[in-house]
Amino acid sequence: MPPRQRQGLLAGLALLAAARFLATGSRRHPPAPLPSEAGPDLVAVDPKRLTAEIARAAEALGLASAPALVEVEAAASRLAEEQDDRRRIDELDQAQREIDGRLDDLRKAHERLTRAIEAETATVDAFEDSVRRTAVACGLATDEVAAELCVRLASALDEAEAAAETRRNLVATIDQAKSDLAEAGGFGPQADRLLAELSSGDLAAWDAGGKAVKEQVAAAEHDFQEARDRQRDMALALEGLRSSDEISALEVERGSLATQLEDALERWTVLSLGHALLEATFTRYEREKQPAVIARASELFRDVTAGRYVQLVAHEGDHAGHHGIDAISARDERVDSGSLSRGTAEQLYLCLRLGLAATHAERTVSLPFVLDDVLVNFDPGRAVAVARAIALLARAHQVLAFTCHPHIVEVFREAEPDCALIDLPLADATGSRSDS
User: Fold this and answer.
1) Mean pLDDT across the stretch 322-341?
2) How many domains, in total, are found in the chain?
3) Is 321 inside a domain boundary?
């Protein structure tokens, strides 16, 4: 076969191989190698059929129906590159499948980790709830995070353990003290009372009492030491006196002094008894033999104070001979008139005036009784009581009561509805009277 025809045949075979590669590209198998030279089989190929196949292959490759060998070689080179690309694509597909497998494994691992994290979160939440409940039970604030609460609980636990150890030591000390008390005080009611007193006693008071007793013991020891020193000195002095010539004179003087002491004691006894009798007699006189004025004033003052003070008693107020008035309360308390409140003191003196007026009328003649706003400093209850006492006095006396307070007028009207009311004219700026 001529070389040109062989070259064309080789180009055609290359085109056929390229077309087959394109047709079977999805299989991604490399095309069969071209023969290096035409063999005997090429002679047996049908030229027309081969030419038609070459034309179809060239058309599929975008070449002329009778391409040159250079074009075929270029197409073969592109095909080889495409084959390499397809092989790399296959490799990438395989890597993609491996990556997909690893991603599936990672997703599964992620799901397992998510479930584990959720379980651990639930465990942590339960632990935090337990920590907060424990903190509440221990009296701690729960507005801190669980870690800080754990630290505080650990500190509280250490303190509780220390307190428990202290308590155990105290219990052991108490048991030992009870044992010592049982040995010292024995058994029975007295020992039970002692234990009850120890269990309910005031430790601070006992400590203070113990300190006071220690001070007293120290002072007693000091006094004992001084007394022993004085005894020694006195023993020496007594020994000297026994050997002295003045012993007989001292004994005579001692007898005389003892007689004087007995006489003085007898006089003191008599005088003390007489003083007590005089005090009792004076007190009885003060209560039962007061002047009629004081007696009448006592009755009025008892009514005015609604029984708070039951009697008035006159007494010597000072060394200058001035007299005073004491009020005896319902609880038998003696209150000096100067210690009363202003209103009560005014009521007392008003009762004295009323008593004096009544007594004077009984003995001589009834005189007019003039009052000027005497109720203004009294509370409502006592003002009514005083008004009634004045109304009672008005039955035997002419009473003139002046006031500028309308409510005082109503008090007098309530005590004595038949009392006469006289409106006095007001004074103008010049001091003269006017009807306005």
Assistant:
1) 79
2) 2
3) yes
The pTM of this model reads: 0.33
The tokens describing 190, both together, are 């007295």
Q: Is a pLDDT exceeding 80 seen at residue 71?
A: no
Asked if residue 369 belongs to a domain, the reply is yes
Query: How confident is the model over 6-48, as pLDDT tens digits?
Result: 445 555 555 555 555 555 544 444 444 444 444 444 445 566 7
**What is the mean predicted confidence (pLDDT) over 166-184?**
80
> For 145-161, what is the mean pLDDT?
75
Determine, yes or no, domain membership for 179.
no
CATH number at residue 400: 3.40.50.300
Of 93, 109, 125, the position where a domain reaches its end is 109
The tens digit of pLDDT for each residue in 385-424 reads 888 888 888 888 888 889 888 888 888 888 888 888 888 8
Domain span at residue 411? 290-415
| 181 falls within a domain | no
